[in-house]
Amino acid sequence: MAGPLRVRWLGRVPYREALALQQALFTHGAGDHLLLLEHPHVFTHGPRADLATNLRVEPASVGAELVGVKRGGDVTYHGPGQLVGYPIVGVPNSLGAGDHVCAIQRLVVGVLQDLGVADVGCLDDYPGVWVGVSGPNPRKICAIGVRLAHGRT
């Protein structure tokens, strides 16, 4: 049986500091954690990101940092007022990273529906959670990037 999920609100934290905390909890921490926070302006990208196509501004020109990270996905913006959640949790051996992302998407969709957000769901071929999914111009409300190693995220 899984133990409790330790949830912590950290306020506004620079991306590299939050990453160091995640790495420490992953390597040395016991149990499952969910870090909730926001970042100063920052763009992150996975190792296979197409920066030439998907980074449309020079980050420094808008007061942002650009940080390479070990996760799937392309370029992601984080900034003030945007809630970011970092789960550091055990994942059953039967789940791969893709299945884990799908489970997170289902959880987020359910929470948003419980909060009264209408027309929310997932789109084939586009990761994350979207609003306006039945219309012509859906908008992303939740991006998901996961790194799974040794049965933990």
What's this, in brief?
The protein is α/β, with parallel strands linked by helices and 153 residues long. It is built from three helices and nine strands; from the N terminus they run E-H-E-E-H-E-E-E-H-E-E-E. The strands form three sheets. The chain has a three-stranded mixed sheet with strand order 1-2-6, covered by helices on one side.
Would you spell out the secondary-structure blueprint of this structure?
Layout: E1 5-12, H1 15-28, E2 32-38, E3 42-45, H2 51-54, E4 65-68, E5 75-78, E6 84-88, H3 97-114, E7 120-123, E8 126-131, E9 139-142
Parallel strand pairs: 1-2, 3-4
Antiparallel strand pairs: 2-6, 3-5, 7-8, 8-9
CATH superfamily of the largest domain: Bira Bifunctional Protein, Domain 2
Kindly provide the name of the CATH class of the largest domain.
Answer: Alpha Beta
- First-last Cα distance: 18 Å
Radius of gyration: 16 Å
